[in-house]
Every structure is written in structure tokens, then in C-alpha cells.
Amino acid sequence: MAEPDGTQAERDFLAQYDPRAFDPIAVTVDVVALTLRAGRLHVLAVERGGQPFAGRWALPGGFVRAGRESLDEAAARELAEETGLDAAALDRVHLEQLGSYGSPHRDPRMHVVSVAYLAFAPGLPDAQPGGDAAGAGWLPVEAISPAGQPDEARPRPFEQGRRTGAYGGGAGRRPGHDGSGGLAFDHGRILADGLERARAKIEYTPLATAFLGESFTITELREVYETVWGAALHAGNFHRKVLSVPGFVESTGETDTRPGSRGGPRARLYRAGDARLLHPALLRPDREAGVR
Amino acid sequence: MAEPDGTQAERDFLAQYDPRAFDPIAVTVDVVALTLRAGRLHVLAVERGGQPFAGRWALPGGFVRAGRESLDEAAARELAEETGLDAAALDRVHLEQLGSYGSPHRDPRMHVVSVAYLAFAPGLPDAQPGGDAAGAGWLPVEAISPAGQPDEARPRPFEQGRRTGAYGGGAGRRPGHDGSGGLAFDHGRILADGLERARAKIEYTPLATAFLGESFTITELREVYETVWGAALHAGNFHRKVLSVPGFVESTGETDTRPGSRGGPRARLYRAGDARLLHPALLRPDREAGVR
DNA sequence: TAAATAGTGTCTTTTAGACAGTATTAT
DNA sequence: ATAATACTGTCTAAAAGACACTATTTA
After folding, report:
1. In terms of CATH, what superfamily is A24-196?
2. A260-282 pLDDT per residue, tens
3. How far is it, in rounded angstroms, from Cα B44 to Cα B74?
4. In 3D, which of B235, B202, B201 has the Cα closest to residue B218?
5. Which of A62, A150, A194, B88 is deepest in the core (most CB within 10 A)?
6. Taking the model in full, what pTM does it have?
7. Contact A291 B274 (CB under 8 A)
8. Cβ(B127)–Cβ(B84) under 8 Å?
């Protein structure tokens, strides 16, 4: 080769390289953390303590620590800070990159590129405020992002009458009740993208099990699909289908103790199998009509 | 609400905000631009003119212009610069975000977060070197990323004997022939991720048509699938399947002029239809075995 | 007992795929 | 004529979905 790929040349170059010679762009991670509570899909949100958007709900997130962590590590760190979970509990949480958002003025302070992550978590305790957030809690998604649409201005971005305990975090105020509506920044759009990703992902992966505990019944698994997709599924056909897909679930040999049941036989318990993709997939019903 | 979401408070805050108060992270976009040439999948690459990795092939890309463009705009700009295409020609190119890569030391200069994009392009003329690249050209992907695996060191990352004209750009040297192998930075991994995305995407979207011209035959469309998937498909069943999926293709009423054919009837010509998702999808063959 | 639920049987429709066959064109 | 290619017909197997049915448990 004409010019050697010399490490000496690279060392010389790096010695005189100035990382601040370029216009700055900040890099953050934001996490769309989803969980199921009482049969409804909830998303982890924090109440912003400082400007901009002080007092508004936002997705948990923060700046990536330059030179010290990868994007995946930053997302896991932010999620751990807001949920108060330790490493063992986080192991049961599915975390994947969702996409990056970098319009020049999405943050009024400066150009901020946010790398969004999507998390599926089993039922978790109330969230812990961490970092510079005034409060943190699990919010029902349909109150913020109706039908998974991008954030549209709503007078009351979520309802207070139902399940008040679900907001958690002990914030005395209710952010978003000032009429401005929706999440801070472009987090409404990020949430909508995360919801659509979640709906698609459980079609061809077994990640619906990530919303459940170590063992679960087929009915509980079906309720995950019904909640995420927002559609009722045929119990009998779903049951047979799940058991027919190789590696989706495996039997524990146990049966449910059925607290709160209204009758019926004890359901068998299953745990997640070893498949990483479902074949054949569980397709959402009624995709023909509106999808073109 | 206790504290007003006052725009005055926000203005005060922004007036004293220093964008350089944080450790810098650079943000770049890199593009995995794929096209078909002579029945083989090619990726656009540039020969690096400067450090680091001088003389090595890399994906086209560059720094995002802080405060002046979105990520999508930056990717389109970089693609236009390297291909020399005007806005009209770029309109026929599919461009979507692939994912972001941000390990702290993936670039030896500083912490660089790269937002990768994936492009599908019809057959294009030889690339134009742009920016600080010494050369640019279309490289056969199997020479760089065998079987879509992450970049593994190979003595000769692409072969010189076949289709020498495909490299374009007029570079006298052949980057990568120094025994170091593979693409610069982590671009081998990004390319592998882009190839897997492309293979998956043509299953459930009509984007295979983005590799073809305005009108095409069913056989040409089948050759796109066979090349991207690396598997032979049954011509008769493929033909019927494509025509049965609503909105995938629509007839132009014309028939092919068949230059270079070895006999057979004139094939009918089609153009891309209005569907954005294929239902039912065209699934890759033989997914059961190795996918778990 | 009645009601609710877990799980299975069975039938129909849709889709994928194997394979064969016919028509059209180049050499 | 022969070979190659563009399509089409037909049959089988897999899968999705509608519906009915039995068994088990709670109230």
C-alpha cells in the first residue's frame, strides 16, 4: 500500500486534535419504559424540576457521559436511576434502542440529539425520583398518547379520577394540568414510536413475556397482547397458537393458585421458552384494511 | 398549577445557558447505501483521506451541522455529496434511520455518536468523491461483510479480478490491501446491521422495488429478492404471490424489450404500487431452523 | 345449581409451496 | 428444432380463525 496506516501518524494526529473545535451538539438518552398495571399499559415519566418545560412530564433520560459510557449503558443507567431497581432486577427488563431524534430545535437550549430506548418491564413498584426530576411515576399511556398517535394538545393529558395511586412518586402537583398538554420536548412522538414498536415487536418475538413475572398463565399472556394491541383475542385459538409455536413458552408443571378468580379450573403455569423469534408469528388481527 | 410554565422563566434560563458547559460528544451520520449492480449487492464506500484510518474504506458520512439540520437532512446531504445525485434523483432513493452507535472509543479522536442510515437505490452511476474522501465507489458487499456477519479481518477485503470498474472514483490505490482488512471504525458492524435490516424490510414492505427503475418485470423483482436474501426462489410461485398481494405492483400495460434475453416471451412491465406494507408478507424461506 | 374459565376438537378459509404444463421467443 | 423463459393450473400442507364442546372451579 502506498501510505502505511501508520500508528505513529495516528498518534501524532491525535496528540494535536481538539475535541472542542466543532460546534457542540449534546447527546442524551431517553427511555420509553412500558409496564402493565391493573390491565393497562403504563409508561415511566418524570416531572421536570428545571427549565425548560419545568413542571411538565417527560420521559426519563439524561446526558450521555462523554467518553465513559456507551449508549446502551447510559440508557440502562437512566432507567435504573428512575426506577430504583438494582442490577438483578434490571436483568429481567428488556431494553433495546428505539431510534434517534435530532431536529435542531427540539430542545430550546441547544441542538440535542436524543437516542431513545424502549424497555419492557414486569409490574414494578412505584418509581423513585432520581437526578434532577421532581417526581416520577407510571402514567397510563392512553391518557398521554391516545391510540398511539403523536402527541396532540389535550386540555387534560391524563385523568385523575381513576387509579390515582398509579402516578406514584409522591408529587403533590399534577404536571400537565395547566392546559399546555402532552409531554415535554418531542417525547410525545417518541412515546408514539415506542408504542408502535412494542405492538410490532410482540408479533414476531416472545417479548410479551417480559411484561410478566417468572411464571404466568396463558390467559395472562393473552391479556398482555390484548392490552398492547388494544384488541380482544379469541381465548381458545390464542391458547392453542401459543403452545404450538416452538420455544415460545415451556411448562413449569405447576398450576395457578388463582387469587381473585371467579371460577374455572386452575390454569397451568408457563415460563418463557428459549426462542428469540416466533415462527410462525402471532399477527395482529385486521391488518388488511387500514395499513396500506 | 403552582408554578407557571412561564415563557419569561424559560427566556431567562436560556439567556444564561452555556452550550459548551458539558463534555463534548460529536454527532455524525453514516449511510449504508445499497444498490444492485450486475446481480450483486453493492455498498457505497469512501476512501478516507485523513486520519484516523487514512486510506481505509469507510461508510460515507460526516458531522451533523449543529443547529442547522436534522439527522434525516444530514444523512440526505451526505448521500447526495458522495453520489453526486441531485434532489430529483434522490427522491427515488429510500432513506431510513438504521440505528445509533456510541461506544466511547469507537473513534480514537473523541466520543463520537454516529446515527446510521440505510438507503436503497436503483442502479446508480459511479460515485463522486466528496468532502474529505480521497475516493468513492460501490463495493460488492460479500467481499467486505461475508454472509452479513460483522466485519472480520480478511487479507483481501474485496476482490480485484472481477468487475474492476465497479470501484469507481478513480483511486489508484486499493484501500484495505494492507492486511488490516474490513472497514474503518465500527462500520463493518453497521454494514452488517444494515444488511440484516434490508433482508427483513423487503419481507413486509415493497421496498425491493426501490432497487429497480421506474418499471420492471416480475423476474427482475425476483432477482432483487434472490440477491438480497442470497437464496433462490421458485419463479412461478413468486410470480403469483407478487401479483396477489394488494398494492405491491401495478401493471404498466407495456412489455419488456428484452435486451440480452436468451429466449422466452416478452415479460410484462410493472411499477411500484401504493402499498406501504405487504399483506400477506413475503417471508424468507427456511427461517425455522437457525433462528431460535 | 349457575356462571365463569381452561383447555380441546373440528371444520372452513387462506396461504405457501411443490410440481406440471402451455405459450412465446432467441438461437 | 431446441432451449430458455413467462406465466398459469392444480394439488397438498400449513396455518388462521370461527365455533362448539367438555372439564373444573367459585359463588
Report:
1. Nucleoside Triphosphate Pyrophosphohydrolase (3.90.79.10)
2. 888 899 999 999 999 999 999 99
3. 17
4. B235
5. A194
6. 0.85
7. no
8. yes
